[in-house]
Amino acid sequence: MPPTLVNVAVGVLIGVSLLGAAFDRRSLAVVAVAAALPDFDAVLSLLVHGTTNAALHSAFVPLAAAGLLYWDTERREESWLRARYGWYGVRVAWVAVAAYAVAGIGLDLFNIESVAVLYPLSNDYYAIVGKFVLSTQEGVVQTYVEFGNSVLSVRTVGTTESRHIATWVNPTAGTSNPPGAERTVRIVDSAWQLVVVIGAIATIPAKFAVEGGRH
Asked: Which residues face 141 on adjacent strands?
């Protein structure tokens, strides 16, 4: 899975794109935290075996948050969130949910490391991997969807019981780690990830400059 810093960087890019008039330091911080939050299920794995890339990477978490947010802001006679934080709070909340789902879960799902996206209903880890290219000899080549069967190519790579995803918090299988276990804090794993991080950092002052010019 991409390092948490990369999830945060993509979350920042989502925030810069979607926050609109609600963009400021506080709202961007909320969105960045939302993008990082799924990776904290590695901490839960110290208490419950197999929750890394599962407990907080479940699609049911952002779905439940979106459902609750829709009910509060669209169905209730008086919205608690709107009454407390106004339109600003509603906008930030929706963007945070989007960052959680796309940057926090999506980056890991479309990766060989995989996530248990249906946890706790299913403990299978899933990974959506493939390619999309244009070839002068083969034409359009894509391996994400098998059109004959209309099936999205999803690879299963073990379950929460049979597979351990090592993190710096819990590098070895189980809920305890032996003394001297190697812990690796991953910052960036590849050049493209570094480009994403630098791009996200560069957009922040640029966005503030644009917003400042409008006032």
From this structure: 133
The C-alpha atoms of residue 24 and residue 5 are separated, in whole angstroms, by: 20
pLDDT tens digits, one per residue of 18-76:
999 999 999 999 999 999 999 999 999 888 888 899 999 999 999 999 999 999 999 99
Give, in order, the Cα–Cα distances in Å from 150 to each of 112, 144, 145, 204: 22, 10, 7, 41
Q: Looking at the chain, how many residues does it have?
A: 215
| Cα(37)–Cα(11) distance, integer angstroms | 11
Q: How far is CA 44 from CA 37, 87, 140, 174, in A?
A: 12, 34, 43, 11
Q: Which residues are within 8 A (CB) of 196 and not within 5 positions of it... i.e. 6 or more apart? A: 6, 9, 10, 13
Of the candidates 139, 140, 113, the one whose C-alpha atom is nearest the C-alpha of residue 128 is: 113
Q: Which residue is it, tokens 């506080």?
A: 26
Q: What's the distance, Cα to Cα, between the start and end of the chain in Å?
A: 40
d(CA 115, CA 112): 9
Q: Does the model's pTM come out above 0.85?
A: yes
